[in-house]
Amino acid sequence: MGKHRILILGGTTEARQLATALSRRADCDLLLSLAGRTAEPMAQPVPVRSGGFGGSRGLAEFLKGGNFNLLIDATHPFAAQISRNATLAAAETGIPFFALRRPAWNREPGDRWTSVDSIIDAVGALGDRPKRVFLTIGRQEAFHFENAPQHHYIIRSVDPVTPPLGVPDAHYILATGPFEEAAERVLLTENRIDVIVAKNSGGIATYGKIRAARALDIAVIMVERRQPADVRTVDTIGEALSLVDHLFSPDIKRGV
């Protein structure tokens, strides 16, 4: 019996953990796809490809050409374009497909969140009065904050923001999580942060800043995620492994 060919769209801790777990199975042949936006990606436990596919049609052709039996979207919760492409490619090819998504953070007592739908809305939510802003949204969309140059920005990202923001006052921190609450409290206090701008990515690696903001009574502008409602989604590695077992079971293959 041949191995099940699985394409995992990755770039997250969960994708790496899922790939590691599936690589231990003798019946699976894995390929992990990364977007290629990080200069020095972490080592992965399975073969890796890097770069885009050329839209949903290109991804569909890649799936068919590689004889894949399953597509798993384990990309970042805000990687909207590749997730849309995955949904369309799976529909076009008829290949089984599901998404692995860490649950979003929930507002807790003491949180001072302003929830917004987009980065552009987050810029507007900062208001006109100058503030000291801790920007933790990655580097891809940081340029939007050039439309609010009155603020002082502390910008943390894995890779450099290139080109730097065209604002009078910005300081850059290059760092990779996880970030512990105690260290986040020190960072927020020493930089006299008034407000944090964050994406509701979920997970524990970057939740330290949310706990620290709660403890220090610092406001958070939270960009909420938007996900397709019609995509089969699991929250944990265990649920993903169980679903893989289900999809590859003999009864499912026979249509029973």
UniProtKB/TrEMBL annotation:
PROSITE patterns: COBK_CBIJ (PS51014). One of its GO terms (molecular function) is precorrin-6A reductase activity. This is Cobalt-precorrin-6X reductase. Pfam families: CbiJ (PF02571). It comes from the Bacteria. GO terms for biological process: cobalamin biosynthetic process. Pathway: Cofactor biosynthesis; adenosylcobalamin biosynthesis. NCBIfam families: precor6x_red, PRK08057.1-2. InterPro entries: Precorrin-6x_reduct (IPR003723). Keywords: Cobalamin biosynthesis, Oxidoreductase.
